[in-house]
Structures are given as structure tokens and as C-alpha cells.
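User: Modeling request: complex.
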Amino acid sequence: MIESYAILPCNGLDKCAGAISREIAIKLCENAGNEMICPVFYRVAETKYNKIAGEHPLLVIDGCPTRCASKLAAEKSLKISKRITITEEAKSHNIKLSSGLRLQENENTLVELVLYELENAHDNAAVVSIESNTSYHFDYESFQNGKFIFRVPGNPQIYFNENDCWAYVIGNRARIGVTDFVQQNLSDILYFTPPEIGAEIDQFGEVGEIESSKSVFELISPVTGKVISVNKTLEQKPELINENPYESGWVAEIELTDFESDKELLIGFDKYFEIIKKKVEDLNG
Amino acid sequence: MSELKVGVLSCSGEECLGGTISRLATRKILEELKFVKTVTLCLPLYLAGGEEERNFAKVFPTISVDGCDKLCAKRSTEKYSGKISGSIDVSKIIGIENALNTKIIRNKDLKDEHLEMVDKVASEIVKEIGRISPDSYSGKSFGGCGCGSE
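Assistant: Request completed. Predicted assembly structure:
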């Protein structure tokens, strides 16, 4: 494993996935340095667990898509370094979980697989990520609404979709991310789920998620292609998206497969600038 | 009239043996004893704002099972769903020293003596369920708790 974690498991008692989250958390805590945060006692002993969460990167283990542990982390304004959801892990490994609460062969296999992946995650990512050395320059236009300032880059190489994502296209590559509208709306971003490197993404397909205490935003890819790099820094510092969603807060780089076709469904600066202004006006009445 | 169900909201904490015993005793009630229509409510989900869990505890008689005298389950039930129908403090059944044991929390580390504690606590939960009068049921209709544990 990359480093020692503060581990916040779901620990739920009504589904097998909750029991698995607990088992993984306990096994991880048998390794020196990892510490568990009890999701129940955290509401009573906040000081103790805030200290643990402040000293280690936070690993959240949710049992099911209800994501109670993630919600608790958001409620306590904890920054999540890594998150796994047991039901999604089971699906990706094609393992059927039982309806009971006792861990049997399938569940124990999943526990071992998840533990193995957690321990090897860093090495795998380092091998396949190929970030370009291209320099990206941004010329911004901005407008203000109340105390909020919205910036939109006006470079002709930058395209937008109406889902508030941008693509900076150079040659057969595009760097993508979200616009100021997204980060201002979400407020403090606490967690970033990157797309998988090597994943083939369709235009308007999902290409990662960002999450704040207010809501979760699915990034909708402006372009079609293969993910060749992701901004790994965001996993530790998702707040970079708030600081600058176009530069330090970029999300991924895509090797384009048919940009000429993608372009027909994208818009340039002029149109997007008008759209974002209208969205902001509508939002604020 | 809706069928009578009894909710059990267990500590499921990680701090000490009492939490583990609470969890296992509640599971035993659910899986083995099948005493009346028992429904386990997920405490982390309940605390995270699960409306179905909270509504269930408002409408149906619910028993809290706490691992230690901090009484996280009891207090949270009273906070979000009102008065509870019964409560079990595991530390009073197995002793405070046992309940606060922080060395043994994993199921695999449990010895016969701990499994006997599980049985003892499960018996107390059964007694508490038996004590609850069907008259305590509010009679309001409810569309199912959705906790997936029935």
C-alpha cells in the first residue's frame, strides 16, 4: 500500500457488503500504521477521530451505493484520498455476494482481491500513466455574479459541451476538465474519482466523478478516445479543481479517435460564454 | 392493518468487544432465532440520514443494542426517532471489562467464552422483544423498511 491510511468503513449490518467492508478494514488495520475510524462512534468522539483523519490520508470503504461512509466523511469535511465501494468491486470481479451476513467463499475471495489491489494500486498507476509534456496556455474572459467570478478560457483550441466540461485539443490529444461553473456550484470539492487509464471513452460518456459535500458531478467527456493520462495529484488534492479547473485542476488526457466528428457536437468560447452566463442567472433567480 | 415488526438497532462499533458481541447477537436473532418479524436497522445508514430506517423506528417498536455504556445506538434512536421500546446495554450483561476489551474485536479471534456471551446477549434481546406489547404498535401503515435484511 502507498502509505498508512485512516480507514472509514461503512460497517453496515444489514447487507453482506457492509460485513465485507468491516472485514477489509480490520485486516488493513492489522498492518502497522493503518487506523480505523468507527463510523458510529465518530459521531460521539469527534475529536479523537478528527486527529486520526488529520494525520493520515483517508480511505473510505462503502458497502453499497448508498455510500454512508462517504456521506459521513463529507459531513465532517474530511478529504477522501481513496474510496472503494464493495458492491462495485464485486461487480467488476464478477463475484456474486450472498444475501446473508456471514462471509463465505465468494466474500472471502473478494476481501483478498480488494486487499491485493489496495496494496498494488500505486505501482500499477505509475506504469501506465503517460502525461504529455505539452504546454497549455489559457486566455481568460470572465464575468461576475454577486461575489462569484466565473472564468472561461477563450483559446480557439478549447471546446466545450453543454455539460460544462472542456477539451483543450492539440494534435490527436485533448486535455479535459470541468469549467468554473461546475466548481463554483459544487463548492469545496472533497473527492475525485479518475477514469481508468486505457479506458475507451465515447463522446458524452462518463469520464470520472468529482464530489463535494453538496453533490456528486459526473464528468461527461467532450471527446471520444482512449484515456492515456489522469491528473493523479487530484486524488490527494481535489481542491485544485476549485483553485483552477482549467490548469492545475485538469482531469485527464485523451488520445482522440475521431475529433472531426466530435467537433460537430461541441461549442466554442462565444456560445459557451453565453450559456454559462444564462445558467448562472437562472441559478440565482 | 400492517403486520407487526420489531426493529433491532445494533451498535456495530469497532472500538471494543462489546460492539462485536452486539453485532453478532443481533445477527443471531436475525438468522437463527427468527423471533417474530425482526428487522435489523443499519446504524451507520440510520445515522447518515436514512429516512426509511428512521421512519421504521418511529412507526414500529424498536430495540437498541449497545456495546458499551456510551450507548450510541440508544441515543441516536431517541434523537432521530423518538422514544425507543427497549434497550440492551451489552456491558451490563457481559461485564464492563469484557465489553471494553480492545484486543479482541475480530470474529475469528472469538473463543467459546465470547460465543457464550453472544448467546447470552441474544437471549436478552429475545426477552426484550417478548416484553414488547403488540399494543405499542402505532398502527400506521408503512411500506417496508428497505433495509434488505428481512
